[in-house]
């Protein structure tokens, strides 16, 4: 049973299907476990992707912790898992049940940070739009330095350029409508 140990000693269980291909990381919300993504993981791993799903602390096969049952700690746990598995260029997909917004904290990362800088994304925003907003916010944060932005986002510089080209093409198509 593959596990990692969180910063506070809580044992976190994960499934890791496939060893090659682009990683796809699945994160569940309350009250599920990583098993919720079994169908998607089977489909994608049989097509060459590496699929990872974890059980959040207090869920499924992960340990029950008295403290740290909040989104900040869940995010730290996920970051520790990504680091432990040495994932690069991973696609992250999540099922989130919340009533407000999800905040992505950019402070303290590779680029000079402004205290408390974050990206606020309303619940219900399509993942593609969240990705677009995260890319542009990271570019702004890095003062337009694409190499630094790509490093922060965990993607190759080529992937960043491809996304920006696609966004530019989408903008051109929208302008002609």
Describe the fold and architecture:
The protein is an alpha/beta fold and 177 residues long. The protein folds into 2 domains: 1-97, Alpha/Beta hydrolase fold, catalytic domain (Rossmann fold); 99-177, Homeodomain-like (Arc Repressor Mutant, subunit A), CATH 1.10.10.60. 37% of the residues lie in helices and 19% in strands. It contains 5 helices and 7 strands, in the order βββαβαβββααα. It has helices spanning 38-45, 71-84, 127-141, 146-153, 157-176; strands spanning 3-5, 11-17, 23-27, 50-54, 91-94, 101-105, 118-122. The strands form 2 sheets. It has a 5-stranded mixed β-sheet. A two-stranded antiparallel sheet has the order 6-7. α1 (38-45) links the parallel β3 (23-27) and β4 (50-54). It is globular, with a radius of gyration of 17 Å. The N and C termini lie far apart (53 Å).
How big is the Rg?
Answer: 17 Å
Q: Unreliable segments (pLDDT under 50, ≥5 consecutive)?
A: 106-116, 173-177
CATH architecture title of the largest domain: 3-Layer(aba) Sandwich
Helix/strand-derived category reads alpha/beta
Strand ordering within the main sheet: 1-2-4-3-5
CATH topology of the largest domain: Rossmann fold
Summed over residues and divided by their number, the pLDDT gives a mean of 80
Q: Using the coordinates above, name the CATH class of the largest domain.
A: Alpha Beta
């Amino acid at each position: 049973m593959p596990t990692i140990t969180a910063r506070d000693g809580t044992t976190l269980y994960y499934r890791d299907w496939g060893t090659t291909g682009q990683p796809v990381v699945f994160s569940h919300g309350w009250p599920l476990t990583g098993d919720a993504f079994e169908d998607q993981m089977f489909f994608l791993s049989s097509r060459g992707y590496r699929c990872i799903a974890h059980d959040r602390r207090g869920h499924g096969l992960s340990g029950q912790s008295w403290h740290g049952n909040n989104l900040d700690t869940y995010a730290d746990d996920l970051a520790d898992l990504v680091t432990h598995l040495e994932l690069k260029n991973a696609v992250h997909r999540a099922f989130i049940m919340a009533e407000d917004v999800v905040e992505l904290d950019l402070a303290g990362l590779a680029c000079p940070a402004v205290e408390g800088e974050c990206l606020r994304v309303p619940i219900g925003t399509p993942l593609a739009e969240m990705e677009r907003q995260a890319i542009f916010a990271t570019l702004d944060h890095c003062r337009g330095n694409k190499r630094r932005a790509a490093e922060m986002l965990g993607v190759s510089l080529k992937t960043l350029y491809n996304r920006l080209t696609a966004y530019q093409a989408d903008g051109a198509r929208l302008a002609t409508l």
